[in-house]
Specification:
heterodimer; A: alpha+beta; Archease, Possible Chaperone, Chain: A, domain 1; 3 helices; 8 strands; 26% helix; B: alpha+beta; tRNA-splicing ligase RtcB; eight-stranded mixed sheet; seven-stranded mixed sheet; 15 helices; 33% helix
C-alpha cells in the first residue's frame, strides 16, 4: 500500500501544493490538505461541519484545479477552513465532502488567503511505484 | 542563474533573441546582480509569452521579475487585435488591479511618533485585514453592478471619499468598458462581504516617513518634503477579482485549442481579443479593476475616519493610485507608427512620461507618479514616469521588491515574533493577526528594493523622486 501524504513545493511568489496517495481520490484529498496547510496547520481545523462539493472537467488535471478552486470558493464565501476531505471520482466527475469549521482569527491565525489554483506545475499522474501524484501552484 | 543565453544590449538591458516559436525577443531590464539572481523560470515564462499570437515589439521583464503563473510577475506584453493578438487571464493574474495608492497627510512624521501605538491600534481595529475578515458594507445586487461599472467614482458618490481624489487615480477612478454582466454570480457572491478589506499576503496599509528626496522639482510637484508623513495602501480587487481570474483562466485554458492557439503551457491560457471569450474577459476584468479602485477608495475612507479621531489636524489627500495587474488599451508608437495595443502588465506599474494626456494636469509636467511598495522592514519609493519609459516598455516600470524566496522557505528561516520584535526595535510598529504570515512576509524574503529601484532608474524606466520608510504597518 502506497503511503499517503501532502507537501509544499517551492515557488517564488506563491505556493506549490502536492498530494500523494495510493489512489487518485487519495492524492486529491492530500492536495486539498496541502491547500489548507498554505493557510493553517490542517490539524488545527476541527472537521465539524460538512460541505458538499461537486465538479466536472475534461481531464484529471483540470479536475484538480476545479476541485481546489471549489474549496477556495467555499472557504471564501462561507468563511470556513477545511481540515478533512472525502473525495469520490467517477471518470472526470468529482463529488466530495469537505469537513471543517468557521475561521477563528485568534485560534487559527491564518497565514494567508489562497486566491485560486493555477495551471502552473499542474500534474496528475502515476509514478513508477504506482502512487498517484496531484499537484499545482496556488496563488496567495 | 546561467545568463549565457542572454545578449547584453546595454548596461541595464538584456535580450533573448527569438528562437523556435518566439515571435519577438525577450527584453529584461536589470543590473548584472539582479539578472544573475533571477529565477530561470522568468526567462522561460517570458520566452513563452514571446510566442503568443499578435505580440508587439518584445516580451518585457522588469527588474523585480520573478516566477509567476503563465506570465512572469514583472512581465509586460502588448498585443495588436488586428494581428490576431490575444488577451490572457494569466497575463493579468488573479488579483486584478492589485495596486498601491499613496496619501499625503499634511503631518510631519514627529506628529505620528507621539501617537504611534494608538494610531496603529485604531487602524488595525478599523480596517479589516487578514483571512476571513469582512467589511461592513453589504451591497445589494443592483449596488454591486453599480460598483463594478463605477469604480472609485461610485465610491465617492456614495460618500466614501472626495471628488478631488478621482483625478489622482488611473482612469480617473472609473475604468471604461466594464461589463458587470460578464461577471459571474459566484464572483459577485465572493465579493459580498469583502468591500473595504485589505486581504492578506503582501497586502498592507503603511504610515511612512519621507526620508530622502532625489528630485526636488518632482517632489514639489507631488507635494513631498523630507520628514513628511504619508500613507500607502496596497490591496486589490479581493474575492471578485480572484474568482474572475479563476473562471476565465480555466475557460481560456480549455478553449485555446478551439481558437486555433497552440499553447506551450496551459498556464498561458489566452483568447483572441476579438473573440467572444476575449471580449467577455475584458468586460469582466475591467469590472474587477473598478472593484479594486472602489476597494482602495473605501479603505482610504476608513483611514480618514481613523486619522480624524486620532490626529484631527490631518488632511489626507490622494497623491496617486496605481494598478499593477491589468490589461489596458493604450496608444503607443512602435517603429514610428502609432498603434492601439492591449498592454498586459502583470506585477508591473504603468509609468507614463511627462505630457501624457492620461496624467492629471497638475502632475502632467512631471510625469505619472510611480509608487513602488517595499517590504515592511525596508523602504518604499515614489518615482515618476519618463519620456524614455514610453519607448522602452510601453510606459511601464517595476512594481515592488519582488520575492527572492518562497513563503515556505521564509517560514522556515524566520519566526514571526522575532520579525515583529526586530521591527519594533527599529521603531516600526507592526500589527498582524498571524505570526506565521509575518514570517512568510519577512523583509529578507524579498529582493533588495533599493537595487530594484536603482536598476529601474538606470534602465530609464522611471526617475526616483522620494524614498519612504515605514513607521506603522498593518499587515493583511
Amino acid at each position: 500500500m502506497t503511503d499517503r501524504h501532502w507537501e509544499h513545493f517551492p515557488h517564488d511568489a506563491d505556493v506549490g501544493v502536492r498530494g500523494v496517495g495510493p489512489t487518485r481520490e487519495a492524492a486529491f484529498e492530500e492536495a486539498a490538505r496541502a491547500l489548507t496547510a498554505a493557510i493553517v496547520e490542517p490539524g488545527a481545523v476541527v472537521p465539524r461541519d460538512a460541505v458538499e462539493v461537486a465538479c466536472s472537467a475534461p481531464d484529471d488535471e483540470v479536475l484538480l484545479v476545479d476541485w481546489l478552486n471549489a474549496l477556495v470558493y467555499e472557504m471564501a464565501t462561507r468563511g470556513m477552513l477545511f481540515g478533512d476531505f472525502r473525495v469520490r471520482i467517477e471518470g472526470t466527475t468529482l463529488n466530495a465532502t469537505a469537513l471543517g469549521e468557521p475561521v477563528d482569527a485568534a485560534r487559527h491565525a491564518p497565514a494567508v488567503e489562497v486566491k485560486g489554483a493555477t495551471f502552473t506545475e499542474l500534474k496528475v499522474h502515476r509514478t513508477e511505484d504506482g502512487a498517484w501524484v496531484a499537484q499545482c501552484v496556488v496563488d496567495v | 542563474m546561467d545568463i549565457s543565453g542572454l545578449t547584453r544590449t546595454s548596461e541595464f538591458q538584456w535580450e533573448i533573441p527569438p528562437t523556435g516559436a518566439m515571435r519577438v525577443p525577450v527584453v529584461i531590464f536589470a543590473d548584472e546582480t539582479l539578472i544573475r539572481d533571477m529565477d530561470a523560470k522568468v526567462f522561460e515564462q517570458a520566452a513563452n509569452v514571446a510566442a503568443l499570437p499578435g505580440i508587439v515589439k518584445a516580451s518585457f521583464a522588469m527588474p523585480d521579475a520573478h516566477w509567476g503563473y503563465g506570465f512572469p510577475i514583472g512581465g509586460v506584453a502588448a498585443f495588436d487585435a488586428d494581428e490576431g493578438g490575444v488577451v490572457s487571464a494569466g497575463g493579468v493574474g488573479f488579483d486584478i488591479s492589485c495596486g498601491v495608492r499613496t496619501l499625503l497627510t499634511g503631518l510631519a512624521a514627529e506628529d505620528i511618533e507621539a501617537v504611534k501605538s494608538e494610531l496603529a491600534d485604531a487602524l488595525f481595529r478599523t480596517i479589516p485585514a487578514g483571512v476571513g475578515s469582512t467589511g461592513k458594507i453589504a451591497l445589494s445586487p443592483e449596488e454591486m453592478d453599480a460598483m463594478l461599472a463605477g469604480g472609485a467614482a461610485w465610491a465617492v458618490e456614495k460618500g466614501w471619499g472626495e471628488a478631488a481624489d478621482l483625478p489622482r487615480i488611473e482612469e480617473r477612478g472609473c475604468m471604461a468598458g466594464a461589463r458587470p454582466d460578464c461577471v459571474s454570480d459566484r464572483a459577485k457572491k465572493r465579493q459580498k462581504k469583502e468591500m473595504g478589506t485589505l486581504g492578506s499576503g503582501n497586502h498592507y496599509l503603511e504610515v511612512q516617513r519621507v526620508t530622502r528626496l532625489y528630485d526636488e522639482d518632482g517632489a514639489a510637484a507631488f507635494g513631498l518634503a523630507v520628514g513628511d508623513a504619508v500613507i500607502s495602501i496596497h490591496c486589490g480587487s479581493r474575492g471578485l477579482g480572484h474568482q474572475i481570474g479563476t473562471e476565465y483562466l480555466r475557460r481560456m485554458a480549455v478553449s485555446a485549442a478551439d481558437a486555433g492557439i497552440r499553447l506551450p503551457e496551459r498556464e498561458l491560457a489566452c483568447a483572441p481579443i476579438t473573440s467572444e471569450a476575449g471580449q467577455s474577459y475584458l468586460g469582466a476584468m475591467r469590472a474587477a479593476i473598478n472593484c479594486a479602485l472602489a476597494n482602495r477608495q473605501i479603505v482610504t475612507h476608513l483611514a480618514r475616519q481613523v486619522f480624524a479621531e486620532v490626529l484631527p489636524g490631518a488632511h489626507l489627500s490622494l497623491l496617486y493610485d496605481v494598478s499593477h495587474n491589468t490589461c489596458k488599451v493604450e496608444d503607443h508608437e512602435v517603429d514610428g507608427v502609432r498603434r492601439r495595443l492591449f498592454v498586459h502588465r502583470k506585477g508591473a506599474t504603468r509609468a507614463f512620461g511627462p505630457g501624457h494626456p492620461d496624467i492629471p494636469e497638475s502632475l502632467r509636467e512631471t510625469g505619472q507618479p510611480v509608487l513602488i511598495g517595499g517590504t515592511m522592514g525596508t523602504a518604499s519609493y515614489i518615482l515618476s514616469g519618463t519620456a524614455e519609459s514610453m519607448t522602452h516598455a510601453f510606459g511601464s516600470a517595476c512594481h515592488g521588491a519582488g520575492r527572492a524566496m518562497s513563503r515556505h522557505q521564509a517560514a522556515k528561516r524566520w519566526r514571526g515574533r522575532t520579525v515583529i520584535d526586530d521591527l519594533a526595535g527599529r521603531g516600526i510598529v507592526l500589527r498582524s493577526r498571524s505570526e506565521r504570515g509575518v514570517a512568510e512576509e519577512a523583509p529578507g524574503a524579498y529582493k533588495d528594493v533599493d537595487a530594484v529601484v536603482d536598476a529601474t532608474e538606470d534602465a530609464g524606466l522611471a526617475r526616483k523622486v522620494a524614498r519612504l520608510e515605514p513607521l506603522i504597518c498593518i499587515k493583511g
